[in-house]
Amino acid sequence: MFISLSRSCCWHGDLKNRGVSLNAMVFSGSFSGIEPCFTITHFNHAKYKVFSNLKKFAEAQATCEAEGGVLAMPRSHKHHQELLHLLTSHKKERYWIGLRRQNNITVYIDGSALDEDLQLWGEDQPNNSGGIQYCVEMLKEMGYKWNDFHCDNLASFICQYITT
Question: pLDDT averaged over the chain?
Answer without folding.
Answer: 78
